[in-house]
Amino acid sequence: MTLVKSTASSGAASRSPRPSVLVLTTLAVTLGACGGGSTQPPAVAPQAVLVEPTASVSELADQADQNYWFAVDAQQRGDADEAQEYFDRAVEVFLHADIPAGEEDAFRTAFNDLVTRVHAQQLDEFQVAAEAEATDLPEEEIPVLSEAEIELLRSRMADTLPEMPKFTVPIPMDNPRVIEAVRYLSQDREEVIAEGLARGQAYLPLIREVFTAEGVPLELAFIPLIESLYKPYVRSRASAVGLWQLMAPTARLYGLRVDWYVDERRDPVKSTKAIARFILDYYREFDDWHLAIAAYNGGKGRVGRALQRTGTEDFWTLSEVPRSLPRETREFVPKILAAILMGTDPEAYGLRFIAEPEFRYDEVSIDSMTDLQVVAEAAGTTLEVIQDLNPQLLRRTTPNMERYTMRVPEGSGDRFRVAYAAIPESERVRVVEHRIRTGETLSRIADAYDTSVAAISDLNGIRNRHSIRAGHTLLIPAGQPSAGTVAGAPRAESGRATGEQVAHTVRRGENLSRIAGRYGTSVSAIKQWNSMSSDRIYEGDRLTVYYGTTSSAPTAAAPPAGVAAAPATTSARDAAPAVASSSTDYTIRRGDTLIGIARMHGVRVQDLRNWNGLNSDRIYPGRSLTIQMPAGQAVSSYTIRRGDTLAAIARRFGVSIDQLCAWNDITPRTTIYPGNRLTIRTPAAQ
After folding, report:
1. CATH of region 137-349
2. 74, 141, 429, 485: which one has the fewest Cβ atoms less than 10 Å from its Cβ?
3. What confidence score (pLDDT) does residue 496 get?
4. What number of helices (H) and strands (E) belong to the chain?
5. C-alpha neighbours within 13 Å on the C-beta side of residue 606
6. Can you give the pLDDT at residue 387?
7. Contact 169/217 with Cβ under 8 angstroms?
8. Hey, CA dihedral for 407, 408, 410, 413, is it positive or negative?
């Protein structure tokens, strides 16, 4: 992984250091990409390197602990970004440090203890479900062979392997460490490597295209075979992510976005462009590809200090000096060289696989926050395909920004643009943002928005449903709203009634989406009420908002209990109460809401109030409600499961999509979420 170092001790034999020191540089140069031929590396001017004294394990642990507790404090204050920054700094204390002589075991123990504590703190954070485990190849030690075994393999390779192309990166095919790496990876780990090469065929064309444009040797496109097995979602134990296993600080340094909505380390295109610049910077630093590859894994500071201490100018000589480099870094270089050999001619090494389709796509522009399910439907594909093409998106929506470029299947771009333009902004995403307050639980939040814990967890990728942190933001999926209210709007906690007019003064950091969520309405409604042509607002602006509705002509606030309300204008749909022929009793359970019970039985909330003489929506567990059923019909509730669509549910119950939408007050474009419930009307049993 990039800038993630091994904590294992060195077991290589010692050699006498050379009297001279290889000096480093930061001069910028332009490199040519290798095709079938090679490019001579440019000359590099020397520059002095200062060697810093090696800290003891206890000193490193103290530095890491200080950052760790800063991170915990930031978490408790609800500042997730600051917490992540300090967690990264804590881990990097060990990643950038040299292993003190004679303290290899203590170093490894201290580092592993820190990583365990950091992960324990981060387990409660929101994670994306589609996240693969990191490959264990970099952490497995290459078996050491005897001289006789090495000689036998060397002769076989010379006799049976075809002539390889002339690479820019030198590959000493008679080097024992390279031979051992080839044998280990192609035989002991044959299935894993074949799987990685199969997946790699999807990404190698785009990697080579980027490397050609940037001047990076094309053979280095096989680095992800060792780093990630070409899995964009992969996360290492030390939180390196993506094809190239980048740490968050390094990614941000090279211009990648890493935040709550987006992690571009998982983006195959953007991360490859960043890593091309990263690799060239390291080559310019060392003027040697083997040392640059070692620094990719171990860090340029650690490699540079090791060169100065030992006085050597060669990676292979350096790797034989005890404690000069971590074991993982010493083995990383021969593994990468072996990956180049195997990837260039897999059949020669007995590796067979079925190549995955090439990663191809059309790019489209999204001009408002949009649910990925809506994107999939507009592109004529599935949610899973959209997520595979856009692995950088951590939520089930595009980021909350004015314009975002994303990918749809190749050939579907024009269709998407036409379909997307026809979708009203209010129907592109049926979510609201909720900032978690101290003491809140997912269950309480779900109840407030009349949705389910499963639906919120699915949308936000929450793995631990029992622990959430104050200060974090949740996306709340829209449920099936009652007439005149907004899907996903929280019930009033301040005594406001539906339709009540509110004058809101915009505060620092607010946007229309957050304001809409607070008042249970939509962005488009706020814009209509305030004659706004864009979503842009400024601190101090005053907005007129009508609570809990999107109506263009909001009704007056409801009168107090016991006071007759003036007749309100209603739609034909709401004008007549349901025709009842029979009644049933329902016992209220803990967590029930009046609106939830109404939807469960396919009746209106107002009818439920009238039948039971209720003046408010307050209900109590254990009490009974009378529910009158329409003539000749039975009503049931269906809990949406992962993968369900409105069309599939309608077919399952033998009803039409239009009927399903009418019963649940939704539209065919409404996004449905696992855990939410739908009302189903079926003929009553005779």
Report:
1. 1.10.530.10
2. 141
3. 61
4. 25, 10
5. 11
6. 92
7. yes
8. negative
- CATH class assigned to 431-546: alpha beta
Question: What's the chain's average pLDDT?
Answer: 75
- Quote the pLDDT of residue 153: 78
Q: If you ran DSSP here, which 8-state letter would residue 133 be given?
A: B
Give per-residue pLDDT as tens, 65-82: 888 888 877 776 667 667
Least confident residue range of 19-28, 291-300, 339-348, 378-387? 19-28
**Residue range(s) occupied by CATH 3.10.350.10 in the chain:** 431-546, 579-683
- Of the candidates 271, 280, 182, the one whose C-alpha atom is nearest the C-alpha of residue 228 is 271
| Of the listed ranges 191-200, 577-586, 677-686, the one predicted with least confidence | 577-586
CA distance 86 to 84: 5
Low-confidence winner among 95-99, 324-328, 466-470, 608-612 (lowest mean pLDDT):
466-470
The boundaries of every CATH 1.20.58.80 domain in the chain are 52-125
CA 212 to chain centre: 28
Q: Is the pLDDT of residue 128 over 70?
A: no
Q: Which of 103, 180, 219, 227 is an active site residue?
A: 227
Q: What is the spatial distance between Cα 328 and Cα 686, in angstroms, rounded to a whole number?
A: 73
Cα(123)–Cα(503) distance, integer angstroms: 40
pLDDT band at 357 (very low <50, low <70, confident <90, very high): very high
264 is catalytic: no
Helix/strand/coil for 586: strand
Enter the tokens of residue 290. 């083997």
Q: What is the CATH number of domain 579-683?
A: 3.10.350.10
| Greatest alpha-carbon span in the chain | 100
Helix, strand, or coil (residue 406): strand
**Burial (CB count within 10 angstroms: exposed 0-12, middle 13-18, buried 19+), residue 534:** exposed
For 591-629, the DSSP string reads T--HHHHHHHHT--HHHHHHHHT-SSS---TT-EEEEEE
Range(s) of the chain covered by CATH 1.10.530.10 = 137-349
Query: What is the number of alpha carbons within 13 Å of residue 178 lying toward its C-beta?
Result: 18
CA distance 116 to 96: 18
| 537-559 pLDDT tens trace | 877 777 888 877 776 444 433 33
